[in-house]
Amino acid sequence: MKIKFWGVRGSIPSPRAGTVRYGGNTTCIEIRTDNNELIILDGGTGIFPLSQTLLKELPVTANIFITHSHWDHIHGLPFFIPNFIPGNKMILHGALDPVSGRGVEQVMDVQLQYSYFPVREAEMKASIEYVSLSPGETVQAGSATITATLLNHPVVNFGYRVECNGKSLFFTGDHEPYSNIYSPGDESYEEYRGLVEAQERMVFDAMHGVDVLIADSSYTIDEYPAKKGWGHGTFDSCMQMADAIGAKILYCTHHEPTRDDDALEREFAKALERHPRREGMTDFRLAREGIEIEF
Amino acid sequence: MNNLSEELNKKLGEAVERMPAFPKSVQKILELTRDLNCSPKVLVQVIENDPVITMKILRVLNSAYYRLPSKITSINHSVVFLGLNTVKNIALSIAAIGILPKKNAAGFDVSQYLLHSLSTAAIAKHLGSKIGGADPMDCYVAGLLHDFGKIVFAQFMPEQFKVALETSMKDDISLFTAEQAAIGTDHTVVGSMLAEKWQFPEPLINSIRNHHSEKAGATVMGSCVYAANQISKKMGYGFAGDARVESLPPAVSKHFGININLDVLIDSIGDDELSKILEHAKQFAQVDAS
Ligand SMILES: [Zn+2]
Ligand SMILES: [Zn+2]
């Protein structure tokens, strides 16, 4: 399996001198199976440069998996160039919106309204297919098996486990560790604690033992208290999670748009000091636009 | 046993989608969602006090879409599973429908109905935790939803329901018997059919279906709801159109001990607990003095 990061920024594209090294595009990860089948996780602005590289291998079938419907994870979709060329195929996977009751096609519909984007879906020449997944559902994309797990974010967010030829990867999309809404002493505290533990166990089981874990580490532990409930993790929560599930490599991603490269490295280094590594433990890394690994 | 036609079942299911919630919860939800940092606890409390919102959230959660290995009845569980904001958004979308009108064409008082449902829920929870063998919060939810069929009648078949309410009063027969004559079915059937249609957990469906039948005695939860309903009526906590208090069938009373009748059971709960239950229910039901 091969992966390449095309966008590692959270919330909003952030191109500027201070973010040149890690990149300003929002979330997009390219995966190639050993048979060179194409899987794309999220359609942030990183999907645009990715899609340009696809023009040399047409016709292309893109298996896209959307973690959730926030802009920074879908914003690049209308600019996915292969959609404009006949013979290509896009299969867009994602969750159903429990509030509107609509499937994943909604993420295209809302963006392809004529006042906001000049091309209507009917005018796109490629074949476009929508697959709305249920939590826990497993689908096949070429030789890869992908399983969706419901995580914790303000909207329904799927983490995806991708498995192929004995290798595995888990991408959280946006995820905040679960916490108790009650205080010790409240009548419902214990009940809620049990529910949280059960839910966390289920999530950890879904991630268990992956070769690569890519996780939302938007905040530092100092920033977190003011952002609790916003649906994002910290460097530290990701490191603890990676250790708990026994990942070989952790990539911290969804970097804060205001955090310049130097600050990013500094905060990451501080978190690393709090979680010292020994031989055989998870290798902690920062996701950077453009890096490619094979495992 | 009356069965709803497929068509009526579908029609009622769709109608409930458009059914508004109770005034106090709508007001509370709008207030809470204006505040970015609203307390999750308060939101859960609002939902747990509104049968319409509880019903709709359980519907989303237990739908085939979520493929849950075991069914969910607790609002806390729904918050952990779906996330606070999704639950908040569902609540908000229900609040946006409007407010359940206090005056409906059936002449059915929705605040008194809510008071009856809330007190039944709290008493069922109390009984459940006292005798064991049923999850107290499940008993609470079953008590909260046991009469849901009535609010559906009041909202969507007001003329026929009005006839049932009047006949029950005039002829001193229980409301569900009068409903069968006037509507061709009764609120236990409609309530449980909706719960079944929305794939609620089996014990919850059964507790709604059997709350006027001795079959309630088959489970602890069913017995708690049966008894709580009669206690609430006997105490005059709210009014849901049925003035008759039924005695506990042996199949039900046996769960609470030997020689237990309604009065003994009421005594065993105690005045303190009962007045606490009434006070809490009143806060939410917004019953005015008039
Ligand atoms: Zn994001
Ligand atoms: Zn997000």
Kindly describe this structure.
The complex is a heterodimer of chains A (295) and B (290). By secondary structure, chain A is an alpha/beta fold. Chain A has one domain (2-294): Ribonuclease Z/Hydroxyacylglutathione hydrolase-like (Metallo-beta-lactamase, Chain A, 4-Layer Sandwich). Helix content of chain A is 21%, strand content 25%. Chain A contains seven helices and 14 strands. Chain A has helices at residues 47-53, 71-74, 106-109, 189-207, 224-227, 235-245, 261-274; strands spanning 2-7, 28-32, 38-41, 61-65, 89-95, 127-133, 138-141, 144-150, 158-164, 167-171, 212-216, 249-253, 283-286, 292-294. In chain A, the strands form two sheets. Chain A has a seven-stranded mixed sheet. The longest helix of chain A has 19 residues, at 189-207. Chain B has two domains: 21-98, no CATH class; 102-290, Hypothetical protein af1432. Chain B contains 17 helices and no strands. Chain B has helices spanning 6-17, 23-34, 40-48, 51-62, 75-82, 84-95, 110-131, 136-145, 148-156, 158-171, 175-183, 187-197, 202-209, 220-235, 250-253, 262-269, 271-285. In chain B, helix 2 (23-34) packs across helix 6 (84-95) and helix 7 runs antiparallel to helix 8 (136-145). Chain B starts with 5 loop residues before the first helix and ends in a 5-residue tail after the last helix. At the A-B interface, helix 4 of A face helix 3, helix 5 and helix 6 of B. One zinc ion binds at residues 68, 70, 153, 174, 231 of chain A.
Structural class of chain B: mainly alpha
CATH-wise, what's the superfamily of chain A?
Ribonuclease Z/Hydroxyacylglutathione hydrolase-like
Query: Which residues of chain B sit in consecutive blocks of at least 5 with pLDDT less than 50?
Result: none
Number of domains of chain A: 1
- Main CATH class of chain A: Alpha Beta
The dominant shape of chain A is globular
Strand content of chain B: under 5%
Average pLDDT rating of chain A: 96
Biggest sheet architecture of chain A: 7 strands, mixed
CATH class of the largest domain in chain B: Mainly Alpha
Q: What is the annotated CATH architecture of chain A?
A: 4-Layer Sandwich
Roughly what is the average pLDDT of chain B, rounded to an integer?
91
Tell me what portion of residues of chain A adopts beta-strand conformation: 25-35%
Could you say what the CATH topology of chain A is called? Metallo-beta-lactamase, Chain A
CATH superfamily of the largest domain in chain B: Hypothetical protein af1432
Roughly how many Å apart are the termini of chain B? 39 Å
Instruction: Write the H/E string of chain B, N to C.
Output: HHHHHHHHHHHHHHHHH
Gyration radius from CA atoms of chain A, angstroms: 19 Å
Q: Give unreliable regions of chain A as ranges.
A: none
Please give the domain count of chain B. 2
Query: In order across it, which strands form the biggest sheet of chain A?
Result: 6-5-4-3-2-1-14
